[in-house]
Amino acid sequence: MIELGTSQYKRVTISLALGSFIVFCNLYLFQPMLPYMANYFAVSETQVNWIFAASTLALSVCLVPWAVASESIGRRRVMLIGLLAMPAIGLTMLLTNSLLSLVICRALMGVSLAAFTSVAVAYMVEELSEKAFAHAIGTYIAANSLGGISGRILGGTLTDALGWQLAVVVMAALSLLGTALVCYWLPIQRHFKPQKGMLRYHNRALISHLANPSLRLAMLIGAVNFALFVNLYSVMGFRLVSAPHNLPIGLASMIFLCYLAGTVSSKLTAQWKQYNHPVDGMILGAAISLLGMLVAYVDHLSFMIFGLLLVSFGAFFTHTLAYAWVSQHAKRAKATATALYLVHYYIGGSLGGFFLIYCWQHGGWAWVIVGGSGLYALMFSLTAKLKRQSKAQPKTTKTAILGANKKMEAP
């Protein structure tokens, strides 16, 4: 096993962090562009949301198939296939002349992104010692978050200055360079053993996880939470570029720096769980996020920014606790359980956009509050059911909780 501080450890950590950074840059590149693309294709806000939703939907449904494929052909090969496909798909977007063809390309991008996302942590678990993994996973998670922020800001600023095509070209070039470095740095796996006939095993595991009400409720909480979180940002992007604010796309994309509040709150969950129940933390996170949506109603930039900071803080707090809950309460096939959580997570983000953007399109932020409040009510109902369910189960040991914390990821 690769030990902490060795040259091999540095190669694994840097290459996987770089790969993760590239993946999330590509995933969120178009989110701040949505108002611009609506004007470019002369379509409604709801229709243009397909550019963003197609990639997240495709990613969600391909996570488990890529994970199963990696059992036979190896984690490293699957990750490199996905990374190599990204710049090619990106450049193909330049040949599109309709919204439909661009949406198809973005769906193909989601398929390629899922290849890396589904197996990167499994690679680390198999190749790194326990101590090395505990340190490497933190770097990997930070790269997830930084990639998401950077991709959004890059997409918004370049589109504002030079058009969306140049943003895609720059992203494709960065992806190609990053992929070349990952191919060179990432060591060949030495502890991976190919396994055939895993499809039936994973199918049984998936059915078992979905039949477990404790896991199912946590996954649904993650889905609703992400549906609200990521799409309140999308709606805010439309709001800021519209009258009376009329901000340029590049400046409006800076709102994604508010994500950093979530980086802080996700780290606070460890302290919370030492003294409080995780489900109570999910409720608290949802309440803070709800407060943020209400604060952002005030049509002043400072209130909108503060509202987004609260939304980020609360949503990441809930996500981290829900994701850890799934990992620690899965009785077997934990990797499949966490992948299934991410499936719900990204599907929620995809479908939630159509709902909240529809609310914005027909009634402004007031209707967003009405529609969002319905989703928050659903999340509070799910957390209440999960709290009742947890009272009927034995408490998880501290060791199990700490082990689950090592596997947590951020969007």
Topology overview:
Elements: H1 7-28, H2 34-41, H3 45-48, H4 50-73, H5 75-92, H6 99-127, H7 130-162, H8 164-185, H9 199-211, H10 213-241, H11 249-252, H12 260-275, H13 278-295, H14 301-329, H15 334-391, H16 398-405
Written description of the protein model:
- The protein has 16 helices and no strands.
- Helices cover 82% and strands 0% of the residues.
- The model is unreliable at 396-410 (pLDDT under 50).
- It is mainly α and 411 residues long.
- It has helices at 7-28, 34-41, 45-48, 50-73, 75-92, 99-127, 130-162, 164-185, 199-211, 213-241, 249-252, 260-275, 278-295, 301-329, 334-391, 398-405.
- Helix 1 (7-28) packs antiparallel against helix 6 (99-127) and helix 5 runs antiparallel to helix 8.
- The longest helix has 58 residues, at 334-391.
Shape: globular
Mean pLDDT across all amino acids: 91
Q: How would a crystallographer describe the biggest sheet?
A: none
Query: In terms of structural class, how would the helical and strand content be classed?
Result: mainly alpha
Relative helix content? over 70%
Total count of helical runs of at least 4 residues: 16
Question: Hey, roughly how much beta strand do the residues contain?
Answer: under 5%
Low-confidence residue ranges: 396-410
Rg over alpha carbons: 20 Å
Oligomer: single chain
Number of strands: 0
Q: SSE string, helix = H, strand = E? A: HHHHHHHHHHHHHHHH
Q: Span from first to last CA?
A: 28 Å
